[in-house]
Amino acid sequence: MQTGILTRSEVARILTPAMAVKAVELAFTAHGMGQAEMPPKSYLTFPRGDMRSMPASLFGQGLQGAGIKCVTVHPENRSVGLPTVMAIVILINPENGTPLVVMDATHLTALRTGAAGALAAKLLAVPAARTAGFVGSGAQARAQLTCTMEVLRLEAVKIWQHARGSKSAEDFAHWAEEAFGLAASVHREVDEVTTGVDILVTTTPSREPIVRTVSPGTHINAIGADAKGKQEIGTDLVKKCTIIVDDWAQASHSGEINVPISEGAILKEDVHGQLGEIAAGKKPGRTGKGEITLFDSTGLAIQDVACALLVHKALGEMTTTQTLDFLA
Amino acid sequence: MQTGILTRSEVARILTPAMAVKAVELAFTAHGMGQAEMPPKSYLTFPRGDMRSMPASLFGQGLQGAGIKCVTVHPENRSVGLPTVMAIVILINPENGTPLVVMDATHLTALRTGAAGALAAKLLAVPAARTAGFVGSGAQARAQLTCTMEVLRLEAVKIWQHARGSKSAEDFAHWAEEAFGLAASVHREVDEVTTGVDILVTTTPSREPIVRTVSPGTHINAIGADAKGKQEIGTDLVKKCTIIVDDWAQASHSGEINVPISEGAILKEDVHGQLGEIAAGKKPGRTGKGEITLFDSTGLAIQDVACALLVHKALGEMTTTQTLDFLA
After folding, report:
1. Does the pLDDT of residue A41 top 70, yes or no?
2. DSSP secondary structure string, B127-154?
3. Which of A78, A94, A124, A318 has its CA 20 to 30 A from that of B63?
4. Is-contact A198 A130, C-beta < 8 A?
């Protein structure tokens, strides 16, 4: 019984943005159809970081598989030249429990997060969306744009970055021009970026709201908040939005809505639904041109397992990949 | 950054019974001292089996590490020539989150379960224990005896096996004679095996109590029950015992005591403590020669992580082992 073993670059060679977007759409649809099982993330906390265990299984939409992502987050790693986020996925065959593949999931994690934003934009943005604003311009901003270009025909992006990372805003702009032929501009005032765009993508680790105002009809992908106390979008603005979460339990605990929820500024009833319910056609998406929609993304284990499943499928008869018989 | 990758036989070559017993004693002591973190197991259920995610970290007793065991259980696998239980452990460095080693944990799981029984026998059996009864004579019975021989000077074993597996009882007896020079006898009446012994080890998957009576002074290692509804020891007998669990949450949910607890026949107050509290010296073990003690073992993630840590330590400069740079 051979188990595939894949490094980051091997996964990156196989998992294209298009494949990630497809995997994540199938995963959310399965989630909405009740064809997924996903126990809560569990955390181990360390002095300088943590480890998260994210198990999930999928049994619908052509996806049959289960697995777990083990992901560590150590913010201080940057200073010693190590990645701050490292992850490994174990994918198993639910029929008989055999391990199918063990793969690095660093690249996969970035891309499946971008793919969730792309899916939300596809389902919730105005159909003729042509412009996007980016608050935050790091690696995740690139993953968001890369995946969104798979589903929408964007023409222009506007970029704002906290002063400390202004160089990264210029880099992002050049890259967006080169990679996708987009008109890209860097702005000093955040409001210039958050208004007059069809889609707004926030990818900062902020603990103070940065975004105060958007134009009617905007779809917001709120990606950055991933822990208690983090918040990128002002509560007054959140209250005006049609709120869609990836998963109620995770989002209310650690997503964009965690602060407004904990303050009682918004209630569970104020949340329109989960992205999977919209993907599965169980709830409507956008209902009007002027509506402001907000997708609160925390990152789900089903996204990881779905991407790993498509990677495993694509492996097929590839003989260049390392395998190991763990039971030998 | 190289991550070690170990197959079952490589782990078996490194992880001796003595090393497993040492690892598990350190793990339980750390648990008792509050030097461990162990979120609840989480389950994914499949039509013919399940997958369990077992994360834990240890930070005391010389153990510094964290990880997760991903274990699948598929009872029908036997009919197609696959193992019913398969497991992989990912061990990480809690300092910076890097993956240290990914190892098969099939052998490790069997041995760490045997090691917990050995530790319980060391802490709870009469010091001059010389005889052991075995109800059930499969692979786990061998792991129990192997590890117990590391801590006690047994001289004789008595074996009972449900009629379906009577051949395995004879095999176990021969093996016990050959491997350890023990006097071994197979019995047809279960009471002949459960009485007149210092230690009783039950390793069956029974859902009906098998053990009804033991002699005063016996220590029982109840290993078999690992799911809701399973029970090897009669409730009337359990009520006479000083009950020690590996972990209250797991044991009350799926261990030997789960049925008596669910029936209200025993209460939380009737449980004397957790094995780690005794290992750490926070609670007394046996207090008299006539006392009947019962250890309810469900299997803890700390046992897996501790064994994996000692395996990783022992790897040291071994160059024969396969490694992979997952981040390459």
Report:
1. yes
2. TT--EEEEE--SHHHHHHHHHHTTTS--
3. A78
4. yes
- CA torsion A234→A239→A242→A247, rounded to 10°? 70
Chain A residues with CB under 8 Å of B55 CB are 42, 44, 51, 53, 70
Please state, rounded to an integer, the average pLDDT across all residues of chain B: 95
> CB-CB: which of B43, B94, B98 is closest to A46?
B94
Closest CA to A212 of A187, A241, A238, A186: A238
> Does B69 participate in catalysis according to the annotation?
yes
Q: In degrees rounded to 5, what are phi and psi of residue B268?
A: -55, -35
pLDDT of amino acid A319:
58
Band (pLDDT 50/70/90 cuts) for residue B325 is confident
pLDDT at B12 over 90: yes
Give the count of beta carbons closer than 10 Å to the beta carbon of residue B290.
11
Minimal Cβ distance to B104: which of A80, A104, A326? A326
- Which band of pLDDT confidence, cut at 50, 70 and 90, is reported for residue A317? low
Tokens for B307?
Answer: 């064994």
Question: Is A204 within 8 Å of A162 (Cβ atoms)?
Answer: yes
H helices of A59-196, in order, are 106-124, 139-148, 166-180, 190-194
The mean pLDDT value of chain A amounts to 95
Residues B23, B42: Cα–Cα separation, whole Å: 24
A 33-92 residues with CB below 8 A of B?
Answer: 37, 39-40, 42-49, 51, 53, 55-57, 66-68, 70, 72-74, 77, 80, 82-83, 85-86, 88, 90, 92
Rounded Cα distance between A143 and A146, Å, is 5
Q: What six digits make up the tokens of B305?
A: 């992580």
Q: What is the mean pLDDT of residues A298-318?
A: 92
DSSP state of A80: G
Contact (Cβ atoms closer than 8 angstroms) between residue A155 and residue A131? yes
Q: What is the mean pLDDT of residues B91-98?
A: 97
Assigned token pair, A4: 């595939």
Q: Of B109, B19, B7, nearest to B309 (Cα)? A: B19
State the pLDDT confidence band at B322, using cuts at 50, 70 and 90.
confident
Task: Give the catalytic positions of A in this structure.
Answer: 69
> What is the per-residue pLDDT for B112?
98
Q: Which residues pair with B56 in a beta bridge?
A: B67
Phi and psi, residue A48, nearest 5°: -120, 20
pTM of the model: 0.94
